[in-house]
Amino acid sequence: MFVNKIEKNITGNQIRNIRLSKQLSQQDVERMCSLKGVDMTRSKLAKVESGMVRVTDEMLKNLADVLNVSVEEFFY
């Protein structure tokens, strides 16, 4: 059976690549977000990275702040 997987965002893979390049786990990012008052669970981050959920501008801005990168880097 063929399942057509349609990604709901184009930034997920790059978010994952940046996180891994900084040697951070999803749980590390969840903790960092929590310290900054950002609502980002490990589960939500996993869905973002796998393209399963749409990302908002606010989510991208918050993740960029937490990962210490520019939002533009998510689109390379």
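(the above was protein one; protein two follows)
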Amino acid sequence: MRFCITEPLVKHVDWDDFRVFLGLARAQSALEASQTIGMNQSTLSRRLRKLEENIGAKLFDRNSHGHHLTSAGHRLLEHVEKLESTLAAVEKDVSGDSMALSGEIRLGATEGFGSQFLAPHLAQFCTSHPAITVDLLPLPRHVNLSRREADASVTIDRPTVDSFVTAKLADYRLLPYATPAYLQRHAPIRCEADLAEHRWIDYVDDLIFADQQVTLHKWLPSVKPFLRSTSIVAQCQATRSGLGIALLPCFMGSVTPDLVPVLPQEIDITRSFWLVAPSERREVARIKAMWDYLRRVADANADFLMGRAQRIVWLPA
């Protein structure tokens, strides 16, 4: 079954019906969607039935795990998310909000980079722009920009979505780190082959969220981790406790007390950060200001992120 949003359909469908559809598609739970939208569940169900009748297609399959989009629902979601973005852009443009250095920005980021590097720099940005409120989301997963979880995001996988604006933010280096006390207690490490004899701290393999994440399974497949965590911050703290060795970004390991790099002359693992935003959000003034600031900060700290410098460079916003 195929359908498109036509003029007769638009005449019969209230935007609130689409709002209900979006809320349920994103929450996958009628209870959670009703709480988010501010509508009781019976009204939500009634509006959903009305929307399905007007479209002439079933939009959700329901089971014990919640509401899941049908193929027709997935196609409608693409249209409605574009419509939502367009309406938001029109509203901001007409109100002048898109040109103002004020309002809210929600920025997603990988957990380590967001908490260790971005947070202190964004503090400077907020001080320079007191009318802007920044929501920083440092998470061990990607935020979903299509579902408007954030206005922009820093990711390690380069997006391929045509409707996104993408810019390379920076390269960064990873190295094994451990405490001097751990290294003194255990067998000496003279070459990369010696690493297999040591205790390692790593990610949980089946919960990896990005293709570009570096894990022991990819790098040293013969090594079984001693401790695993989805959190790079937790891995760093476990390493600092003297438990073992972890592969950490230099921007974390080099500034964490009690940690030293292992075989820095032999090991060179490099990845990249990408700055991403939906095209209609990229030109909003406050988002553009943050975007440009983050690129300047990353450029100024290229040596620090690659482990060639030990000190962070601070820039005015």
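Reviewer note on protein two: The radius of gyration is 24 Å.
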